[in-house]
Design brief:
The chain is mainly alpha-helical. The protein has 2 domains: 128 residues, DNA polymerase, domain 1; 182 residues, Intergrase catalytic core (hpI Integrase, Chain A, Orthogonal Bundle), CATH 1.10.443.10. 48% of the residues lie in helices and 6% in strands. Helix 1 packs across helix 5. It is globular, with a radius of gyration of 24 Å.
Length: 349
């Protein structure tokens, strides 16, 4: 786990209970104790700690208390109700994980396991389903034509244009999660005759790294939509030969040493969607590229099992998260029923 910046008293009293995020190395410890401390830091991914931290602070701000722990089930339920129309279901669940984490770190009873809190969350889900608003939790996907319009609208001279072009093409072809894109490093890239293989290491469903994952970025000779050509053009122009692949650029054209944040990548995609005059441009986010890969492949009637070889979904059932309203009309025999009825001949007795 990396060091968290701007550590507050709330962080110290909760996160430090599990892993001391700001403590200076204690040289008086036995070597084995220091090793154990280091391993404890690796228990969760950095993004997990950041999500827990954000959730804990959000809950504290809402309660208007500097330290609202331990919390009662009624207080947690009220928090969910207050945020019901503000956050996606996935975000609400993530906030509950953070509150649960805080109580476990403090050795307190976990209110999120209470039947009352579970009932509140279930009620929110049911209410959204009945109102038909559950799809607001999904990042919208680009159609093939809309994605092409976005890429076509990007120049190939400015550094920001080269970066954004590479980001869009690599993100779509690789079907990367947003966290995988912001965490992508040069050291993961392997140049081959067929393109670039990306060594993924740990992925979301395999945090212990038991399985080896590789994503393929194919080289498409002569194409304006080749992810390999776009990626190499960006790396060459930016002078990047190690570390994060996608980075910020200052107003003076200086390339940062740090990776783009999730907020920055969301803004990048919204900016390019607006430039292409796409409708609902503000709704697109960093996850839209992965969602677009699945949607486009399904449009081309590629089986989910083959799609999963690139998305690395180990359980095909998990791919139902990408189901959208229009999917009801794909790969179903019901669309042929009208034609069959029109040509059917009635049996005459």
């Amino acid at each position: 786990m990396g060091e968290l910046k701007h550590v507050t008293e709330l962080d110290r009293r909760i996160l430090d209970r599990l892993v001391p995020v700001a403590a200076e190395p204690d040289e008086t410890r036995l070597p084995a104790e220091r090793d154990a401390h280091w391993y404890a830091r690796q228990a969760y991914a950095d993004n997990t700690y950041r999500a827990y931290r954000a959730g804990v602070h959000d809950f504290a701000r809402w309660t208007n208390m500097s330290f609202p722990f331990p919390a009662t089930p009624e207080l947690v339920g009220a928090y969910l109700a207050a945020k019901a129309n503000q956050y996606a279901i996935a975000t609400l669940e993530q906030r509950l994980h953070a509150i649960s984490f805080a109580h476990r770190a403090l050795g307190e009873k976990d209110p999120t396991k209470d039947d009352y809190v579970k009932a509140v969350l279930k009620g929110i889900k049911r209410d959204r389903a009945e109102r038909g608003t559950h799809e607001q939790d999904q990042a919208p996907a680009f159609s093939l034509a809309d994605f092409r319009a976005m890429v076509d609208g990007i120049g190939q001279e400015k550094l920001a244009d080269l970066r954004d072009r590479a980001y869009l093409l690599v993100g779509l072809y690789g079907a990367f999660r947003q966290s995988e894109m912001t965490g992508l490093t040069v050291e993961q890239l392997v140049d081959t005759d067929q393109g670039i293989a990306v060594r993924m290491g740990k992925v979301k469903q395999d945090q212990e790294g038991r399985f080896k994952y590789v994503k393929a970025l194919p080289y498409i000779k002569g194409s304006d939509y080749c992810p390999v050509t776009a990626l190499k053009a960006w790396l060459r122009a930016a002078g990047i030969d190690k570390g994060p692949v996608f980075r910020g650029i200052s107003r003076w054209g200086k390339v940062s040493t740090r990776a783009l944040s999730h907020t920055a990548t969301n803004d990048l995609i919204k900016k390019r969607a607006h430039a292409a005059l796409l409708s609902d441009a503000e709704k697109y986010s960093g996850h839209s590229l992965r969602a677009s890969f699945v949607t486009i492949m399904r449009d081309m009637e590629v089986p989910d099992a083959l799609i999963a070889r690139q998305t690395h979904h180990r359980n095909l059932q998990m791919m139902t998260v990408y189901d959208r309203v229009e999917d009801a009309f794909r790969q179903t025999p019901v669309v042929n029923l009208g034609g069959w009825l029109a040509t059917a001949e009635a049996s005459v007795s």
